[in-house]
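# step 3/5: fold
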Amino acid sequence: MTRALLILFSCLVAINQASLIHRCDLAKVLHQEDLDGFEGYSVTDWLCLAFVESNFNISKVNENADGSFDYGLFQINSHYWCNDYQSHSENTCQTECQELLSPNLLATIHCAKKIVSGIAGMKNWAEWTIHCAGRPLSYWITGCHL
């Protein structure tokens, strides 16, 4: 019985540490920051991206096989876009990777805009290409009252 309680407590702590944002709250922030239509991508593209990359978890960090890390809502990679002080980084967004975990999302949005402004656009994210590109996405804003 004690072991089961310990496992349950560990799961609750892990869930509590995740910084999840509701999709409609994120939709409002993305809309306010002029991402609807930015480089031809709609708010629904951005919502789908956030879901497939982090499941709306602002604090998600993922280690990759090459030793780089992906940070935050859009899983922005440390090798190219931000500086994590752990490995060589091009730091194209001129930001610390830890800033991409902030709940105010400004550093994340600024960096994501820089990424999407490049030649590959949202195709920089393989998960967006697989799960979102060319699909009807209007359901992502259902009930959000934008």
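# step 4/5: annotate
The chain has five helices and three strands.
# step 5/5: archive (pending)
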